[in-house]
Amino acid sequence: MPDRTSLRALALTVAATATLLLPAALAHPATASPASAGAHTGAGRNVVVRWNEAVLAAVRTGTLGPPQVARALAVVHTCAYDAWAAYDAVAVGTRLGGSLRRPEPERTEANRAEAISYAAHQAAADLYPAQRPAFDALMTELGYDPADTSGQPARTGLAACAAVLDHRHADGSNQLGGYADTTGYAPVNAPMVVADPLTSVDDPSRWQPLTYRNKAGVVVTPPFLAPHWGGVASFSGRARALADGVPAPAANGTTAFRAQAAEIVAGTAALTDHQKAIAEYWADGPNSETPPGHWCLFAQQVSARDGHGLDDDVKMFFALANSVMDAGIAAWEVKRDHDSVRPITAVRYLYQGRRIPTWGGRVIDGATWVPYQVPTFPTPPFAEYVSGHSTFSGAAAEVLRSFTGGDAFGGQAVIAKGSSQVEPGVTPAADVTLRWHTFSEAADQAGLSRRYGGIHFRAGDLQGRALGRAVGAAAWQRAQAYWSGQG
């Protein structure tokens, strides 16, 4: 497969060379059909799912990193929820409470769908202005004129969303400033040229920027992504406090520091095809939905599986998206607090001048070790501890378990023979099927995938999973309060 988008498509649709990749009830519909008054269409894709799909399409073509993507999903789904709440007898909006509530005769599904669509359109265009033509096209396909805001549902949806956007424009993310860092962060270590052996590092416990040639063939040295993100206002109000309770990672000079690097060296040298498939399936790097969006795809499958109505999906995506936004805030708070070293630096530092085994059956100088990742994106540009994948996935799984009333998932993905981007044409030697009986199993595999890929250490994964579950529980509690009218 040529890129991450096609890898995800392979995992969520029927491949030409493979069997059905998800059970029929979980298969992701491949094309969009016009919606009518918010009713389910095709395989049950109401306007909430349609707007989720539209935002994920924008994510794939955009350049935002995982925490910004999580926030974008939360903003869109919060605007949709707040618009919907105006047409519910009990629920209150996150910004305007019950002040927009419409009288009972107006609380039709058609009006709810219209209000949601105008709100989601406004939010999506605010977050991804370059994609506005696609959002306008979806409005037209759904039967709405984005330029005609005269109807009551449109006015209600726009008022609800405007209040959310006003809040989020001042939430500490610096969206209006291009999400630029507001804290003055600077790395303590000079960049490492990935193609060259490591020669020195000032502080082996701390994060080091990497210089490499990206997919476009351009030599880049990405800075630390969003080091200010721990200061973003969280949905539950508890993300930062939960992050501050996470213990510190192992430091250079300790037995634990050496042991975690040794585990990475041994583990990546012994990778099976199944483990390599896990590493690549969950990579969620450039041109993908990123980890938060990956779980929004899973939520679409849950919607189809369980036959959700519009009200179900408004609430599920509202809780889910806000949980992954808070997971990003919490994970990045820990990352910035500890500024911790990635395996690529730690392994090269500890094993320079020593011959070590590595993936692909090779033996190399430890100073040249690289993770099991595509060379055009060898390691994400931010600190190791804790794993974002683990935190996002732990939070998302917690919410989906809570919303569905159980842990059963039943998803699967087939990774085609020879489809690896790290070892193209070679790995896997035969089709590999990944299965997740439960949401918890999927979340655990997402976290483990980063250890297989040589991106994270064990503690970064396990502490991230625990943090994610705590963040998800807090977000779930807050979401329930809004739709039960407690605010």
From TrEMBL:
The keyword rRNA processing does not apply. InterPro entries: DUF6851, NapH1-like_2nd, PAP2/HPO_sf, V-haloperoxidase. It holds the Pfam family DUF6851. Keywords: Signal. Residues 1-27 form the signal peptide. The keyword Signal applies. Residues 75-209 form the DUF6851 domain. Residues 316-481 form the Vanadium-dependent haloperoxidase NapH1-like second helical-bundle domain. PANTHER family: PEROXIDASE-RELATED, TRAF-TYPE DOMAIN-CONTAINING PROTEIN. This is Vanadium-dependent haloperoxidase.
